[in-house]
Design brief:
Radius of gyration: 20 Å
Distance between the termini: 44 Å
Strand order of the largest sheet: 1-9-10-11-12-13-14-3-4-5-6-7
Largest sheet: 12 strands, antiparallel
Shape: globular
CATH architecture: Roll
CATH topology: Lipovitellin-phosvitin complex, beta-sheet shell regions
CATH class: Mainly Beta
Helix content: 25-40%
Strand content: 35-45%
Number of domains: 1
Structural class: alpha+beta
Order of helices and strands: HEEEEEHEEHHHHEEEEHHEEE
Length: 307
């Protein structure tokens, strides 16, 4: 089951969604940025596994995203994000920053539409290489051949722009999710699917997106909105099986043993945003994603606060 567990946990957090909305709205999230604008966001990221396990301790990390608008035109924006670890973290954890290249100095340069909708990660190869280097440093030295094969295969899957965009920049995807969306004070349900390319092969995986305005405060110039996504357990089951197949995992042993658990696999996402209406900058957000089944669940939480 060790091989299956590795693949299962990888698959849970490779899901990313986009949504389409109805026209009857009372507010739209639109970027109104200027070339040269700079912003800093403090990000707290937490992963928890249920039931708790010593092999999978709680993951907590706080870091900063330094944002620069490189270009602004009628065709959209070019944005640069650079992650940095807070100075107090580096002081209290000397030498650890070198083991976390993704969170200390990695540049992510991407383009958006005029509305602020994410379009393309320009330096995806650089981002991919940084993530793979960080993962390899953290891997145990005494892995058996089967586990090493799984890791090598997962690395190979990232050799495309689509995979890098879909799995390696969750912070950016999450931040830009509301842009271009029209919200209403009445709860709106709409069809949604995985990002443009199904990361696991096969047909796009359907889901339901639910979004709503919680509050519009014109005096204080902000909009509070929520976006939730529910992935059907039957379709999620197909996603995991597709992932295992793409990883060349034999269909006899582990998959058969885990079939009962996989049949109850579910993914839910709930995102809350506070948007400054006059500029379009998202000044705070909270996201909670839960994936798994009754015997194995994992929750990942992001909390953003603009400094």
């Amino acid at each position: 089951m060790k091989i299956f567990t590795v693949c299962f946990l990888i698959s849970i957090y490779s899901l990313s969604c986009t949504q389409t909305t109805k026209e009857d709205t009372s507010a739209t999230c639109l970027a109104k940025w200027k070339k040269g604008e700079e912003k800093t966001i403090l990000i707290s990221r937490t992963k928890k596994r249920f039931p708790p396990s010593e092999k999978f301790p709680v993951f907590n990390l706080t870091y900063e995203a330094h944002i620069l608008v490189l270009d602004s035109s009628k065709d959209g924006y070019t944005i640069k994000w650079v992650f940095h670890l807070p100075e107090e973290f580096k002081i209290s954890n000397p030498g650890l920053a070198e083991l976390l290249p993704v969170y200390e100095g990695l540049q992510m340069i991407f383009t958006t539409t005029p509305a602020g909708v994410f379009k393309e990660l320009m330096n995806w190869k650089e981002v991919k290489d940084a993530y793979i280097a960080m993962m390899e440093v953290s891997l145990p030295k005494n892995m058996d051949d089967s586990t090493r094969a799984i890791i090598n295969r997962s690395n190979e899957l990232f050799n495309s722009r689509e995979m890098a965009e879909g799995t390696l920049i969750p912070e950016i995807r999450l931040y830009h999710a509301p842009y271009g969306n029209q919200f209403t004070t009445k709860e709106t349900k709409s069809d949604t699917s995985l990002v443009d390319v199904n990361l696991f092969g096969g047909e796009p995986v359907p889901a339901i997106a639910i979004q709503k305005i919680k509050e519009i405060n014109s005096r204080k110039d902000y909009l509070d909105a929520t976006i939730s996504v529910q992935l059907d357990s039957v379709d999620a089951y197909k996603v995991v099986l597709g992932f295992l197949k793409k990883m060349n995992i034999p269909e006899d042993s582990d998959i058969v043993k885990a079939k009962e658990m996989l049949s109850g696999f579910q993914v839910t996402v709930h995102n809350e945003y506070r948007i400054k209406r006059s500029t379009g900058w998202i000044i705070s957000l909270r996201s909670e994603k839960t994936g798994g089944a009754s015997q194995l669940k994992q929750t990942e939480t992001f909390v953003y606060k603009m400094k």
